[in-house]
Amino acid sequence: MTSRKDDSNQDSEDAASLTDAKRISTLQEEKRRILVNIPLPHTELDQHGEPKKSYVTNKIRTSKYTLLTFIPKNLFEQFRKVANMYFLFLVVLQAFPLIGGDVSLFVGASPLLTIIAITAFKDAFEDWKRHTQDRSLNKSKTVILANWKNVNVPGGETHNKPLERMWSSVSSYLGSNNNKTTDNITSDSSFDSLVSQQVLQPKVGTAQWAESRWQDVRVGDIIQLKNNDQVPADIIILSTSEPDGLCYVETKELDGETNLKIRHCIPSTGSIITESDCERFTFYVQSEPPHPNLYSYTGVMHLFGKDINAGDQQADETTEGDRKIEPVSINNVLLRGCVVRNTEWVIGLVMFTGADTKIMLNAGDTPSKRSRIEIETNFHVTMNFIILFLLCFGSAIAGAIFYIQPDSSADVFEYSGNDAGGAFENGFLVFWTSLILFQNIVPISLYITIEMVKTVQAYFIYSDIDIYYPKLDYPCTPKTWNISDDLGQIEYIFSDKTGTLTQNVMEFKKCTINGVSYGLGETDAVRGAKLAESSSAAVEEDEIDLVAEKELMLQEMSKIFENKYISPNVTFIDSKLFQDLRAEGVQAKAIQDFFSALALCHTVLVEHPDESNPSRIDYKAQSPDEAALVGCARDMGFVFLERFQDTLTIELFGERRQFTLLNVLEFNSTRKRMSVIIRHPDGGIVLLCKGADSVIYERLENGKQAELRENTLRDLGVFANEGLRTLCIAYRTIPDDEYEVWAQKYAEAASSITDREEKIEQACEMIEQSLILLGGTAIEDRLQEGVPECIKTLSTAGIKIWVLTGDKIETAINIGFACNLLQKDMTLIVVTASDKQDTARQLNEALDKFFGPDAKPSDQDSKHALVIDGETLKYALDQSLKSLLLDLGKRCNSVVCCRVSPLQKAQVVALVKEGLNAMTLSIGDGANDVSMIQEANVGVGIVGEEGRQASMAADYAFAQFRFLDKLLLVHGRWSYFRIAEMISCFFYKNIVWTIAMFWYQVWAGFTAQYLYDYTYILLYNLVFTAFPVMFLGAFDQDVNVKTSLKYPQLYKRGIFQQDFTKSKFWLYVLDAVYQSAICFFIPWGLLLNGSSHANGLQNNGLSDLGTMVAGSVVATTNFYVGLNIMNWSWITFVVIGFSIMSFYVWVEFYSLWYIGFFRMDLILYTEIEFWLAVVLSVILSILPRYSVKYIHKTYWPSDTDIIREKLHHDIGRRA
């Protein structure tokens, strides 16, 4: 069984293996023992008679803050940012009158307080939502056994008293529940000897089921779950409503998988039904400590007394008199977050609560990611700090020089003496005062503005109807909001194949039985291979009429039997199969054995979706492969009907037959096979096995079926070349005595608490030998809709795509042609080596042949694609060969890595990301893709039909691969150039504002005198210039959606990082310095001599000059930002107009009530000099920038400029 689910679990198993190994090695020290109706030994009780060992409560808290910790913790996190610490330092400096002047401390701190308050409000709102979710979950209702002594916790009477609940909450908050004392714990041998003497005498008949809250559930409680109930803690299943002790569970909230899974109760406790049954059973569970591996659990249940055989239905436990040992595995456990389905009730014992449950242990955050622009912005900030230092240092030196000048104005205006004792002291004070004066050159509001803009961009992505998938009701969901601009710079995409490029909806297409191949029709891979051929004959459509062939097959089937269970969508078509069946020869017997094995060797669940039509059967399996195999057997007349306890019922050609299921040897990614052992209704024990061809062939009986093996392997090779997923089917007959011996060893292995998995594997190896080959299956996983077109578009955009798959080379190549990853004009470079030296040789030969100095011109000029298998990749990723692989890979347009493991996927991504310093994106759908998703700069998870493991760990999640083109070429490209231009404009406007104050210092004697009123400084970034740059960052467009997708080459600007460069930063700095000079000296020149009004007021004061300069700067910077906006609409006019007018409205309002500005409006607004200064400043400041843009777009236009011009002319012609 090639379980997609189990394949995807491999990375989780790999990730947890080291941790689990360490835990098992210390199991005796950390093991958990939970007792039921057995008193604790005195050595495990404290002086008050309560258990020494305590466990965490079931109350969870995913929030970061509480009412008491919010302010200190949030402030600590905010002031971890260097920028915030810098501005806090400036606020402290302003508290000193010598440096801060007459500016009040509150006014000086208001910008920082505003930013801190906005961020704190956002954090509080997000955390309030977490608190609400936690509170709702903690107060969810469940049913526990009350009026019963739970000896494992203090105050074990489960009455749910209010005082107990209050103490539980207080102790949880204080952290006392995290105390896990392990000293003086009774050893196993001495404990078992005490059990028979100290069996608790329960108050039989007093226990009853009672409703309780999740947060009150404790370790050792017995709980009852009903159908559709969510599991509140990790519990061991004691019994279920099903006669065979089965329980069906949905684990979607845990691992994202939507398929139902089967869990089993402990056989010896299967008879527990009522409250009195819970009081009567006496046992304890010896458990491993909590760990995060979702797919592993090891424990042992020790039962005592006469009731231990009451629910016994299996023989895989150890019995010693009135004592029995039962193994407990993950198949006997329900994990918190799962949902009980199709089961009336379940009774379970709580093993792990709260933070110890597996879902909480796996709730860690994905790796923190920062966008490239965010990282590169640090350079701009650093340069601004350097500019700030130079301004302050220069002012300090100049201030010291002015201080020692004789006959200066200071002799008159500073008659009482200077605060400084000398030139050095004066320069020292000027430095720190200038630091406050020029502080706005480092924009305090930049980071909060970026965060707000990226929130808007994330909302646009989420709201895009074009990347919404109605079938799953799932939009594109951004989970990491701060890397949207990285979507516009992706150079390499690393993609899984199954479930990512393909649908992960399997269709049984072909098979080989007894050396005879069956199945008609072409696959996507075959059609892709035809596209790769140059001859016209090769691209002809499949000449077989599948509709007519299907009708013929149904007619042949009806001659043998009537199949009322056949699906209307039959995927396997070949009338020859039923012709051979009617012949009643050796081949007919082989066909019956083959499809009977498919109908019996599985773990699927039967569903009847239409109650009015009992003949309609659907199969729910843990992998789509398995459902396809059983579904095909049904369509061919070998119908699996039901599983009841240990009985499998199938219908063969209309005749019902029942088989006894003895054992299921489950699939995992290490075994690569699964087996069932059944007892035939005619007698005899048979093992049925299915798995990968390499695994099955190793276990075939030696010296037999030589010709069949060769023919089957040949057919499987043909199937693989057609892009099909293949499996081998085999069986063996087991003598009863051999089975009995093996069953005992298997039971012992299953009962082991240490190294259980290894011992079970060894037992399986003993029985899965000397197999008889039946044949092989071939399943197609069809391409998703739009994949070829999407890959072609992305390739045209300059993005290189690497596919990392577990398929064979032949299958991967054909799929590559089918999805446009490989093209017929590409030269394929196939590297397959057996050792490190061979790998190095082949890599060097490929580089020399196709890219070396002696390479043929035709080879150098053509496109190349690299195909490498997992074994070779293992050697190529060695430290000594990494550079060769990277050098070859970067020269190829496409790369296909076959037979790769989850770890290798992450290593390949890291190789390119770190080796080439390139922006990478990984996309996948399964747990085996999580490592590469988290390794890449941007991780995208496909929300598949089967599971959502990858989407839960990804930065972005959507349902179809084809949505990737719009996410990158539209949203990503827009986000990149918007953020790049917004940050550049942000630094520009602050430099203009600050340097204008520096020019004034020449006439102020470098005394760090404020040019502007302080309210202007406060409102400049908050109101006067805030909205145009935010509008640019959130809404600007160079071209529309349709044009972005029509001309994907526009994306290359992001790959080459042409919109956010160091040279662009310095050009904006130079422009800002020039404009600051214009905005200062024009008002200064016009007001040099001043003028008088009839009312006696004059306009030659500092407030007048500062207002004129500030008004000029505000108008200039807003128009400048508008000049850089590409998409002008009425909203653009409103935003820029509002921003400019806000300054003049503020001056009008401010002059009405502030005495220092009394009637400033009457002085300035009625003067022609004021308005002339503003107009001249704007024109002379913008004119050079406008001229450069005009010349550049006219004579050296970019691709974007050409496309925009073309669109403009097209619109003009249509008009």
TrEMBL record:
It is a multi-pass membrane protein. Residues 1-23 are annotated as: Disordered. Its EC number is 7.6.2.1. One of its GO terms (molecular function) is ATP hydrolysis activity. ATP binds at residues 496-498, 626, 667, 690, 725, 805-807, 899, 905, 928-929. Mg(2+) binds at residues 496, 498, 925, 929. PROSITE patterns: ATPASE_E1_E2. InterPro entries: ATPase_P-typ_cyto_dom_N, ATPase_P-typ_P_site, ATPase_P-typ_TM_dom_sf, ATPase_P-typ_transduc_dom_A_sf, ATPase_P-type_domA, HAD-like_sf, HAD_sf, P-type_ATPase_IV. It is an enzyme of class 7 (translocase). GO terms for cellular component: endomembrane system; plasma membrane. The chain crosses the membrane at residues 82-99, 105-125, 379-404, 429-450, 983-1002, 1014-1035, 1065-1085, 1105-1123, 1130-1156, 1162-1183. Residues 208-258 form the P-type ATPase A domain. Keywords: ATP-binding, Magnesium, Membrane, Metal-binding, Nucleotide-binding, Translocase, Transmembrane, Transmembrane helix, Transport. Gene3D superfamilies: Calcium-transporting ATPase, cytoplasmic domain N (3.40.1110.10), Calcium-transporting ATPase, cytoplasmic transduction domain A (2.70.150.10), HAD superfamily/HAD-like (3.40.50.1000). Belongs to the cation transport ATPase (P-type) (TC 3.A.3) family. Type IV subfamily. This is Phospholipid-transporting ATPase.
